[in-house]
Design goal:
686 residues; alpha+beta; 8-stranded parallel β-sheet; globular
Length: 686
């Protein structure tokens, strides 16, 4: 009798990248070659099993590479989605394989899927994105600054110009302006280039009375306070006036000279960014607008002005009346309209009852991705909230995608979304999402045990490497790979606490503990580990301005502190340059496969590989040193060879020098310091 060979389950692999699906983004009617990897022995047959079938198609054994044999099968696509798993047969056992790995039974909820014709922009796959909250990034032109008392914002509060750039944001900060603008961004384009940034994502830029500008006043124009103000006035005379009385002062941002000049300046900025190889993404706030908008005019800014019709708040006969959903008996019902989350200053847009509004926003989607602006994509605010029903929401985004992609086929459509995004990622709506569920949250829980607002601490999640991989793989399975490769992988942003603050593992907000507490007991070593994972995990790593310079902050508004020019943590900035360089030089980190290798308490190790570009990433986030044996053979490395360490981070330092480590019997033996991470790449034969 011969020995029965078991299926080596760790050797099994396939995914939706270009090494295992050729082409990876096929069209309807196209032939697709699907590949599967297994150990060279122990397998009697492999089957490609479409969803809904029992047996499937037997795959053809092909070439051998080292320990592995590859199996292939070609299929002809129709115009319909196609889902499949693999079944590997051994002498006395059967094993199934899906997007989360191997199992003893088919798990169709984790099936591989092909959506014919669904392509995401190649430039965005693995692109390093830099997010800018403009008012707090850099003041390049003080002549366009908001002045004290220039106008009143909510509840009669005058806007205020903050003179001290380093002052902490106040607990109620919406009417405080620090003066950051697009001229400041233009002046820092070389800085972005030196970092290796491939795209800039701007928080909203359109005319708005707030510093965050999520309450749009006019979607057709860039706010002159961010761009250009040509005429000026004595602003001291405006202090204390109501918006209606101070209309002549407010009009400097609605004056056509300033509006057109601001749009022209923005076009110049985008062109300058493009010259340096940097793309630009705008924030589209289309679920709601601001009550200041001429369509509503709750604050009566436009009332009676030449060239402006009455707003919906002013008159029932307003041409914009059906742009909003009013309630109540007879007119005037004034305040009785739908507001996002009930906020009167954020009236919800009523697309279902206004085809004019619908067409207008579709036009806005086209306008900014077209010349002369030539923007490269949209980030869509609260995208799943838009409309009054789910079915309408999906139809709106189908039409929006069509409108934008007809104008610029490689524009990126990226949505803010929490929870399962699958219904919107079917190739006809969004390209991808801000990746909370399949990146920010699992990584934050693993490295800090903190919720992303710093509102909760979970010690049972802290350092659980197995939970990290289970959560990541489950959430990633909800994406097509082309969506995952362009997903916005952030550690921090304008809505959540800064990641560096989360490393102090303290529950709090600026209102309860004060802003200084956000900087106490932070651990830069943990931040460096997080950035290593960010730059080596599938997706588009996105830096929230100032994170690379050591900026701290509780959740909104403390997370909107000004970039600390002149006070940067220069070592941390340089660390970001090195790690972004590693990311940009290794194609496997942009579009390659990912495979977990080890998991334990405060321990994860995984591989990224594409063709002959094979990397291993190791994290020891615990307080003790560790001697580890990493099974890099699972990535297809040589059993005996060399891997080069490209980066080592530790508690108080990092090392970016190249250092060779031997691979013996398919394992990389490494000593990991406490609170450390490392990146290794297989040395290629010349």
């Amino acid at each position: 009798m011969h020995d029965i060979k078991k299926i080596d389950r760790r050797a099994l692999f396939s995914d939706e990248t270009a090494d295992y699906r050729i082409p990876p983004e096929p069209e309807a009617g196209e032939r697709v070659r699907i590949r599967f990897r297994a150990a060279a022995d122990g397998i009697s047959a492999v089957y490609l099993v479409p969803q809904g079938e029992q047996n499937g198609f037997k795959m053809v054994p092909g070439e051998e590479e080292g320990l592995f044999r590859f199996y292939e099968r070609e299929i002809l696509l129709t115009d319909r989605p196609w889902a499949y798993c693999f079944r590997a047969e051994g002498e006395e056992e059967t094993c199934w394989y899906d997007k989360t790995g191997y199992s003893d039974r088919p798990r169709w909820e984790y099936a591989f899927r092909i959506m014919p014709g669904f392509k995401t922009p190649d430039w965005a796959k693995g692109a390093v994105i830099y997010q800018i909250f403009v008012d707090r990034f850099c003041n390049g032109n003080r002549e366009n600054d908001v002045q004290d008392g220039e106008y009143l914002y909510v509840d009669g509060k005058p806007v205020r110009r903050v003179e001290d750039w380093y002052q902490y944001p106040e607990a109620l900060d919406v009417n405080n302006f620090y003066g950051g603008d697009l001229q400041g961004v233009l002046q820092k384009l070389d800085y972005f280039k030196s970092l290796g940034v491939g795209a800039i994502y701007f928080n909203p830029l359109f005319v708005s009375p707030s510093n965050h500008k999520y309450d749009s006043q006019d979607y057709d124009y860039i706010d002159p306070h961010f761009a250009r103000i040509i005429n000026d006035t004595d602003w001291t005379a405006a202090q204390g006036m109501t918006n209606r009385d101070a209309r002549k002062y407010v009009t400097r941002v609605t004056d056509m000279v300033n509006l057109e000049a601001s749009n022209a300046f923005f076009a110049e900025l985008v062109a300058a960014a493009h010259e340096k190889g940097i793309r630009v993404i705008l924030d589209g706030v289309f679920n709601h607008c601001g009550s200041f908008n001429k369509w509503m005019d709750r604050e009566r800014i436009y009332e009676g002005q030449a060239g402006y019709a009455d707003g919906a708040y002013i008159s029932e006969e307003s041409p914009y009346h059906d742009f909003f959903k009013f309630h109540g008996g007879q007119w005037p019902y004034n305040n009785h309209y739908d507001g996002w989350w009930g906020y009167e200053t954020l009236p919800k847009l009523n697309y279902e009852e206004s085809r004019e509004l619908y067409r207008y926003i579709m036009g806005i989607g086209r306008k900014w991705v077209s010349p002369p602006y030539d923007v490269d994509g949209w980030r869509l605010d609260v995208a799943a909230d838009l409309g009054h029903s789910e079915s309408f929401n999906h139809q709106f985004w189908r039409d929006f995608r069509k409108s934008v992609k007809e104008a610029k086929p490689d524009a990126l459509i990226l949505a803010e979304h929490y929870g399962d995004p699958a219904a919107w990622l079917q190739g006809d709506q969004w390209d991808t999402v801000m990746n909370y569920d399949a990146f920010m949250e699992p990584l934050t829980w693993f490295l800090t045990g903190m919720e992303k607002h710093s509102d909760e601490r979970r010690d049972d999640f802290y350092g659980d490497g197995e939970l990290f991989f289970r959560t990541m793989l489950h959430q990633m399975s909800r994406f097509y790979t082309q969506s995952l490769q362009v997903a916005m992988n952030e550690l921090s942003n304008h809505d959540h606490s800064r990641f560096l603050t989360r490393t102090n593992r303290t529950v709090g907000r600026t209102g309860s503990l004060g802003p200084e507490a956000a900087e106490r007991d932070v651990r830069k070593g943990v931040l460096r580990i997080a950035v290593v994972v960010q730059m080596t995990w599938p997706g588009a790593p996105t830096i929230y301005y100032g994170d690379e310079a050591g900026l701290c902050g509780w959740t909104d508004p403390d997370n909107r502190r000004c970039y600390p020019w002149g006070r940067e943590d220069l070592e941390l900035v340089e660390f970001h340059r090195y790690i972004i360089g590693i990311h940009n030089r290794n194609q496997a980190l942009k579009t390659g496969s990912v495979k977990p290798l080890l998991a334990g308490r405060h321990l994860i190790a995984y591989g990224r590989f594409a063709g002959d570009n094979k990397l291993a990433v190791v994290v020891n986030s615990g307080s003790e040193p560790r001697k580890l044996s990493i099974p890099v053979w699972e990535l297809g490395t040589a059993l005996e060879g060399t891997m080069i360490r490209l980066m080592l981070t530790a508690d108080d330092t990092y090392n970016s020098g190249r250092l060779a480590f031997p691979v013996k019997n398919g394992h990389l033996e490494v000593d990991m310091p406490p609170e450390s991470s490392a990146i290794f790449v297989e040395q290629r034969e010349e």
